[in-house]
Design a protein that fits this description.
Blueprint (H helix, E strand, L loop, with lengths): L2 E2 H11 L4 E4 L6 H8 L5 E4 L3 H15 L2 E5 L5 H13 L4 E7 L22 H9 L2 E5 L5 H15 L3 E6 L6 E2 L6 H4 L6 H16 L4 E5 L2 H4 L3 H11 L3 E3 L14 E4 L9 H7 L2 E5 L20 E4 L3 E4 L2 E4 L3 H9 L7 H9 L17 H9 L6 E5 L3 H7 L8 E4 L9 H11 L4 E7 H7 L3 H6 L5 E6 L4 H6 L12 H9 L6 E5 L2 H13 L5 E6 L7 H14 L7
Parallel strand pairs: 2-3, 2-4, 4-5, 5-7, 6-7, 9-10, 9-12, 10-11, 12-13, 16-17, 16-18, 18-19, 19-21, 20-21
Antiparallel strand pairs: 1-8, 13-14, 14-15
Bound molecules: ligand TPU and magnesium ion (MG).
């Protein structure tokens, strides 16, 4: 078989495990899309716009480990860039491929459409360099295999997005055949001497403590070390707390799971255990203003050991060039039991409150929505929670073993969840997918529900209509937090047009919500959007406390010079 630049890229994407790629057409990528279509192991999945295309790929990467989005130059690429930056912040290897102008127009007097009407169109590559771990522009078929491999290999290794720009007249040009996939996926092993030294230092650190606790962060998944974190927990026997952004990365049905640690708004007992501990082992944590609740909950000092994807540091030591999973697995074999925090957590944790029941005629409230969603969460469920009060409502759910949870807490771009849910559903067709989305967020990317309808994906969307930007209301209120109401449930009929099988249902009381959920579970031919009407200030207590502390952090006056 002879390869072209485009079919070479397709072969590499297929070799690394992709079954789909997301795309929006434009004249600079049409030939490339044709070339990708020649690969029968890859399906092309279309999106309504390039921002959504980027987020769809981001969601797919959450389900499948890696993803690709194909867009046209500039008008498409610059839209996708927000999602690509999000993938960087969230440690997800999304490969953005952009078509580009004909090589014959480079360094000439020609002005090209979709550009700034100047002769320099390097800006998209330059922007991409800042927001990816590898960015290449392909203008020669001979160099394409090398450049594509570099970008794909970097993305997989670093768990960050990469950018590949392909000139439109190069996409179908012949090039060399791809070699073995190991050139893309083989990892350098941990440095053996460093690994031994770091495990010894960490074992000594833990040996000298009485009551350590583990704190799990979202980079644990990027490091591929979820299993090894359980091994270390089992070996130590201590309490394990999890940051909100990492919810689900440590099994919540594990006997040592001590809840979500989020400073003042931690799950009952979790904060007390972290405060009580004499050492905190932070594994893949990201401590930002939101996750530390306005800098009020920052684990630091000599009693903190921080283990990152490729680096471990503790008082007096800083080790690099090791894999987190090797470190955790090796440490698990070296430590002695330190069970005090798990024992104490069992003493202090609050008794679960008796379950309330739906009162069919009762006006719908936030707490009841969460209660009914909880009953839907099974081992094969993934819950996707949008920025807004949905963060706090989602984090409060209990995940049975096997259930997954997705949030975009570092980047926090509203609108992320609609296309990310679409992409996730394409990548994980056998999971039950539940999205919790606020009305304000939904307005950014609503049209991607049409692609769920097109592909008959039985996603369940809980659209929380509280008539505005409630999360912002709790941080700082003003007229800018009020939004135009939509008929969200009615939108689905418009998206269905003549052939769709999506369902849209508006509910205002407990009984209607329960009935709507039954309809959703029976609808296998498309998404069901349940528009839940609640009051503007009917929000979680956690949002109110968190919002107050974040507002204080935002309002700090400039330091005097
Ligand atoms: O449930 P609720 O009302 O808190 O959520 P909803 O209705 O989705 O409102 C979200 C409000 C919000 C904004 C406007 N959350 N964060 N922001 C700021 C923001 C603006 N633009 C982007 C792209 N991302 C943001 N996070
Ligand atoms: Mg809202």
């Amino acid at each position: 078989m002879t390869y072209t630049v485009g079919s070479y890229l397709a072969a590499r994407l297929s070799q690394i495990g992709l079954k789909h790629h997301f795309a929006v057409a434009g004249d600079f990528n049409l030939v490339l899309l044709d070339q990708l279509l020649t690969n029968k192991n890859l399906e092309q999945v279309y999106c309504c716009n390039e921002l959504n295309c980027g987020y769809s790929a981001e969601g797919y990467a959450r389900a499948c480990g890696v993803a690709a989005a194909i867009v046209t130059f500039s008008v498409g690429g610059l839209s996708a860039i927000n999602a690509i930056a999000g993938a960087y912040a969230e440690n997800l290897p999304v490969i953005l491929v952009s078509g580009a102008p004909n090589t014959n127009d480079r360094a000439t007097e020609h002005l090209i459409h979709h550009t700034l009407a100047t002769h320099d169109w390097s800006y998209q590559l330059e922007i991409a360099k800042k927001l990816t771990c590898a960015a290449v522009a392909i203008t020669s078929a001979a160099d394409a295999p090398h450049q594509i491999d570099y970008a794909v290999r970097s993305a997989l290794r670093e768990k960050k997005p990469a950018y590949i720009e392909i000139a439109c007249n190069i996409a179908a040009a012949p090039c060399a055949a791809p070699g073995p996939v190991s050139a893309l996926i083989a990892e350098e092993p941990s440095d053996a001497a460093t690994l031994e030294a770091v495990i010894a230092a960490a074992a000594k650190f833990l040996h000298d403590t009485q009551k350590p606790v583990l704190l799990i962060g979202s980079k644990l998944r990027a490091a591929g070390a979820e299993k090894q974190a359980v091994e270390l927990a089992d070996a130590l026997g201590c309490a394990v707390t999890v940051m909100a952004a990492a919810k689900g990365f440590f099994p919540e049905d594990h006997p040592q799971f001590a809840g979500i640690y989020w400073g003042e708004i931690s799950a009952p007992g979790a904060r007390e255990i972290v405060d009580w501990a004499d050492a905190v082992v932070c594994i893949g944590t990201i401590c930002n203003d939101y996750s530390t609740v306005g800098w009020t909950a920052m684990p630091n000092g000599g009693d903190v050991l921080t283990a990152d994807q490729n680096r471990v540091y503790l008082d007096g030591y800083d080790f690099g060039r090791i894999h987190l999973r090797d470190f955790l697995a090796g440490l698990a074999r070296k430590v002695e039991k330190r069970e005090a925090t798990a024992v104490e957590f069992r003493r202090i944790r609050a008794e679960p409150r008796p379950e309330s029941r739906a009162r069919p005629e009762a006006k719908l409230m936030r707490a009841e929505i969460v209660r009914q969603i909880q009953s839907l969460v099974t081992a094969d469920t993934t819950v996707i929670a949008e920025t807004g009060d949905s963060w706090f409502n989602g984090v409060a759910l209990k995940l049975p073993g096997g259930a997954r949870f997705e949030v975009e807490m570092q980047w926090g771009s509203i609108g992320w969840s609609v296309p990310a849910t679409f992409g996730y559903a394409v990548g994980a067709p056998n999971r039950r997918i539940i999205a919790m989305i606020g009305d304000g967020s939904f307005q950014l990317t609503a049209q991607e529900v049409a692609q769920m309808i097109r592909r008959k994906l039985p996603v369940i969307i809980f659209l929380i209509n509280n008539h505005g930007y409630t999360i912002e209301v709790e941080i700082h209120d003003g007229p800018y937090n009020n939004i135009k109401n939509w008929d969200y449930a009615g939108l689905i009929q418009a998206f269905n047009a003549e052939d769709g099988r999506g369902r849209g249902i508006r509910v205002t009381n407990d009984g209607e919500l329960a009935e709507a959920i039954k309809v959703a579970l029976a609808n296998h031919d498309g998404p069901t959007l349940i528009e839940c009407i609640i009051d503007r200030d009917d929000c979680s207590a956690d949002l109110i406390s968190w919002g107050r502390l974040v507002a204080i952090a935002n309002a700090r006056p400039p330091r005097p010079l």
